[in-house]
Amino acid sequence: MEITRKGQSSTVNVSCLNRLLKKGFCITDYALDGVPELCEMAGVLGDAVIGSLSEHPVKHDTLDGLKPILRFHYNDENTYKVITSLNSIKMDKIGVGSFLLVVNSVGEDVSLGLFRGEKVVLRPNQVAIFNVGLSGIEFQLETDGLLKYLVYSEISGVEPEIACGDSSFSQSTFSKMSVCANGLFHDAVDLERWIEDGVVTARLMPDVANALLESLQREEFQSVNSAGGGDKDYGNRFIAKQSLFKPRELRRDHLEVVNKLRDAFSEVLSNKPNPSGDNVSLFEAPIGHYMESHSDCGDASPIIILFYLRDTPWVESDGGCIVSKKMMFDDLGRRVVDDSEEPIRVSPEHGQVVIVNNTSALFTHQVEEVLSGVRYSFIFNLSMLTNPSWDVEYEGKDFGELEMNDFMEDAKSASS
Question: Edge-to-edge, what's the strand order for the sheet holding 99-103?
Fold first, then answer.
């Protein structure tokens, strides 16, 4: 899977993509014709030369090679921007899907520091690619004087600041690796497993689960199906009126839960932008419901929390389990299941909590078909950049007036 442009070859190949997917960074070779000279001129002439660097083939070829990963983080609603700099790039918040490309523009070996405890040395004619949007990983990168390209979300509400001075990117791991959710969960949540496995489970306190189920069963639901198309194929699913009309105007009882979750996972959310607030979706899944394997990274919510609720005890023959798998790229550049990794399968018992790491395209999840009974769920997308906006479009309409095709496409974007 070599990408060729203007006679040059960007070696962002399958091996490099898989390392980026699993380790969070990779190093690729590139013939950096003229780059050191342009960078030297930029020190004298400034912006006039930076414009040339921003359109240099190294940028385009490397981004072309990254497309198999970028397409899971970005879409028509969440597009990306790229900035170029030899100076410091500072960001108060680093969104999901942010990638830093560092070019060895000095012609000699350069030590960039540590990424997840691994020393990174960049040799001449090499480019390093870092997924700086990952949560919970530690890195300290020194990039002073080197050519850098930063990929970030256009809708994040965050604009990088370019200035002279120390050019470093850093992030610390979480100070507390286990968290409690202020009386919501029965036991603490292991964030280290959340980082490494992509999913971790918890149990709601019985009184919390029962109260949420009672409130959910009073909701009015509308059928939403999306069989046979897109990245999120699903069938026989029902979404609550509240989730359709006013997804961002949270009811008091839901807001209380969201506030407790935000407090519990404050370290996950602290450096992530949140221009649109949080989203809570309520779903009913009767017999026949399923969801094919998919990733929700394009929503840019760093963490997705699911509460499963039901009014009868779950048994294996009921189906409806959620299955999380780790992925890889095959020799043709297609994302496929990594058979060397054991899937994580979680049963939708009453009060079951599933917490998904949505900062990496390494992880995917699916829902097995519901074979018996009804499965209810609360889905919390915290700091979700692509929060649905149909509450404005349908404001003032009675729920019964809406036709299925009015909101089918919008409802699909709220699924996870």
Answer: 25-29, 126-131, 99-103, 147-153, 80-85
Total domain count, the chain:
2
The tens digit of pLDDT for each residue in 180-235 reads 878 899 989 999 999 999 999 999 999 999 999 998 888 888 777 543 334 455 66
Shared domain for 267 and 197, answered yes or no, is: yes
- Report the alpha-carbon distance of residue 371 to residue 297 in Å, rounded: 28
Burial class (CB in 10 A: 0-12, 13-18, 19+), 175: exposed
Q: What is the CATH number of the domain that holds 187?
A: 2.60.120.620
Coil, strand, or helix at residue 73? Answer: helix
**Is 18 found in the same domain as 95?**
yes
Q: Looking at the structure, do residues 259 and 214 belong to the same domain, yes or no? A: yes
Say yes or no: 130 and 186 in one domain: no
Q: What is the dihedral of CA 38, 43, 48, 50, to 10 degrees?
A: 60
What are 85-125's pLDDT values in tens digits?
887 888 888 999 999 999 988 878 999 999 999 999 999 88
Per-residue CA distances from 395 to 244, 270, 277, 384, 399 (Å): 10, 32, 19, 22, 10
Rg (CA), the chain: 23
Based on the domain organization, do 141 and 8 belong to the same domain?
yes
Question: Which helix (H) or strand (E) segment is 224 a member of?
Answer: strand 221-226
* Cα–Cα distance measured from residue 412 to residue 409, given in angstroms and rounded to the nearest whole number: 5
Residues 397 and 250 reside in one and the same domain: yes
Burial 131-162 (b: 16+ CB within 10 A, else e): bbbbbbbebebbbeebbbbbbbbebbebebeb
User: Which residue bears the tokens 């990088």?
Assistant: 160
Spatial distance between the Cα atoms of 151 and 58, rounded to a whole number of angstroms: 14
Measured CA to CA, the distance from residue 197 to residue 400 in angstroms comes to: 43
Which residue range is the domain that position 39 belongs to?
Answer: 3-171
286 within 8 A of 310, measured Cβ to Cβ: no
Report the C-alpha gap between 358 and 205 in whole angstroms.
25
d(CA 304, CA 310) in angstroms, rounded, equals: 20
pTM of the complete model beyond 0.90: no
Q: Which residue among 130, 151, 171 closes a domain? A: 171
